Hints:
The complex is a heterodimer.
Chain A: E1 32-34, E2 40-44, E3 53-55, E4 62-63, E5 68-72, E6 80-81, E7 86-88, E8 92-95, E9 101-109, H1 116-124, H2 138-147, H3 160-163, E10 174-179, H4 188-195, H5 197-211, E11 215-221, H6 225-234, E12 241-245, H7 254-262, E13 277-281, H8 282-293, E14 300-306, E15 314-319, H9 324-330, E16 338-343, E17 350-352, E18 365-370, H10 387-391, H11 398-406, H12 410-415, H13 426-430, H14 437-453
Parallel strand pairs in A: 1-15, 10-11, 10-13, 11-12, 14-18
Antiparallel strand pairs in A: 2-9, 3-5, 4-7, 5-6, 7-9, 8-9, 14-15, 16-17, 16-18
Chain B: H1 40-62, H2 64-87, H3 98-108, H4 116-129, H5 144-155, H6 157-160, H7 180-187, H8 193-198, H9 210-222, H10 229-248, H11 256-261, H12 265-272, H13 283-303, H14 310-327
Helix pairs in contact in B: 1-2, 1-3, 1-9, 2-3, 2-4, 3-4, 3-5, 4-5, 5-14, 9-12, 10-12, 10-13, 13-14
Amino acid sequence: xxxxxxxxxxxxxxxxxxxxxxxxxxxxxxxxxxxxxxxxxxxxxxxxxxxxxxxxxxxxxxxxxxxxxxxxxxxxxxxxxxxxxxxxxxxxxxxxxxxxxxxxxxxxxxxxxxxxxxxxxxxxxxxxxxxxxxxxxxxxxxxxxxxxxxxxxxxxxxxxxxxxxxxxxxxxxxxxxxxxxxxxxxxxxxxxxxxxxxxxxxxxxxxxxxxxxxxxxxxxxxxxxxxxxxxxxxxxxxxxxxxxxxxxxxxxxxxxxxxxxxxxxxxxxxxxxxxxxxxxxxxxxxxxxxxxxxxxxxxxxxxxxxxxxxxxxxxxxxxxxxxxxxxxxxxxxxxxxxxxxxxxxxxxxxxxxxxxxxxxxxxxxxxxxxxxxxxxxxxxxxxxxxxxxxxxxxxxxxxxxxxxxxxxxxxxxxxxxxxxxxxxxxxxxxxxxxxxxxxxxxxxxxxxxxxxxx
Amino acid sequence: xxxxxxxxxxxxxxxxxxxxxxxxxxxxxxxxxxxxxxxxxxxxxxxxxxxxxxxxxxxxxxxxxxxxxxxxxxxxxxxxxxxxxxxxxxxxxxxxxxxxxxxxxxxxxxxxxxxxxxxxxxxxxxxxxxxxxxxxxxxxxxxxxxxxxxxxxxxxxxxxxxxxxxxxxxxxxxxxxxxxxxxxxxxxxxxxxxxxxxxxxxxxxxxxxxxxxxxxxxxxxxxxxxxxxxxxxxxxxxxxxxxxxxxxxxxxxxxxxxxxxxxxxxxxxxxxxxxxxxxxxxxxxxxxxxxxxxxxxxxxxxxxxxxxxxxxxxxxxxxxxxxxxxxxxxxxxxxx
Lengths: 454, 336
């Protein structure tokens, strides 16, 4: 099946990649449930790619819901808001799911915010305009996004205002909205597209206005047809095109989505803007709509709590900073054979062990995997079968890079373009010798970066 | 993989009173999913399945001779693996099945008439020197079976020279004839195409039946256990050079089709040259490797004193593999 999208050359897919088991059925039909406000949230001062935020509050200070508590220090950083009303506690260092130790602002919840359906309506409900958006100034849209503390909610957590802003140097013709959700298990974007397509559409129109894009394409994999229908219906008459993409990992990578739609390759080390594209995730678009139209900051997000190790796989709307442990408790607890907690999806997510680990803005899912699901073979020697070469969506030679990293040969790993790897995990997934290719390459990349710093 | 990573344990946050032992949570680097369906061992078993038609045909044509060589070579390969790996002080690697594959391929590349010690020495050299000395599976530069065969071909020239294939006294028809390659090289006798296709001729045990090699080879390619690029490149080169030879050479009835179906071109293309360890990694590199092997086969066949050139062609190209890898580093997605 090829993608036939007027005016675009892509065929809806890309070369290489893998087909891991999807396992989306676990939580695909679980409607988003609103979590009750927890007793406490822990807000990391560093939630995004780029610089951390500086705290604007002091311990024992009372803060309201959505009050600004941290301000980005540089352009590529963002604001932080109280996701629940309450009293600021003593700042502590906490380990985030990605292994970083960060200063955090704990808030003990006090005071009321809407609960249940009211909270849902507050965030995603009401009417979302699709016309008359010319009244919003492109630069102001970007400011509102920045003030709302928005980051890419698809996982990478790149500050959104950096991408969604008027750009004279690199004109953008197309806004690509990423609804691929190619990570196995995760269903949060899917549920949001089905249950709240209107704010996504409004957000996309606003973002396109800000970047000056004439066209908007929402890319959704073909295993999410109900989402395609919902978005098409909501976007009727707006000129937004919905592209049905082939279900293949990593279709949701911005480089690969761009290629699959436009047949243009984002240059290595370059940005989507280099090919006239801005890309953002569907959940981010919904948050953009709320930030621009209601001037409300990002305080909550939809998270999939799924996997074979959780009693009731669910999709929940929860405040940023809630502990992963509370999500687990809300979803019925762990099953006896739970073996691994993963922040994000199983291909690129981070395993962590402490249930007190706080949820950050970029965390679209908590995948609790069972012993059976994480079962791995024993590592054996590479027989150079080349399956990793066939799998690598970046067209690299993973085994060569991994072996160069293992032998700390920086020059060799450079020759094989180690820095082009974005650690999607396709190679390690497919390796018959079960070599931890991604882990080796990650270590090698760190070594290359260290060598570059001298 | 897990044992290499730092393991941390923690109890679950939700302690259920009915549940005495809370789950143990491990951490590990991503990805957290692996394709458990694939393993090195399964790849080797796949090769053995693909070899089944070849083995069956050799048993049919050469009867006891084939059974005898198979027994000698496989037993030799397995005991060599056991012995040499133990000498290196490593855990035994018999269960990856790679030694059986080497043993079977070696047996299929031997003449049925070779005495038992020739097969046994070939198997020991193949595994011991060809593989384990280099560091074991995945580390060898040359195709182990071909290393073993080349060693005995030079050491026991009589047994592996063209005349060694024949035993006019033999009750097995195929053994009492000259090999098609030699009959042509020495006397200009062209073997009928049908005999080459079905495999009712003399020759190395596994090479005679073009049909069996094609069946097994297609299985390997369909299963993606072997790459299609190597056989494609190899056969293309043989066809082009064979075609040129037809065109400028004497019209003696030996055509490009005889070149492809006769001798061990098909067995070599599908089972020997495709050994992943000693061939290049990238599709482009594999195709070049195939072209080079096919080219060398034809050069040896047309211009050397040997009637056949598959073994030396593969070994020569094995030596070039690191260089081909270096020349065929693919351009990354988005690179220039």
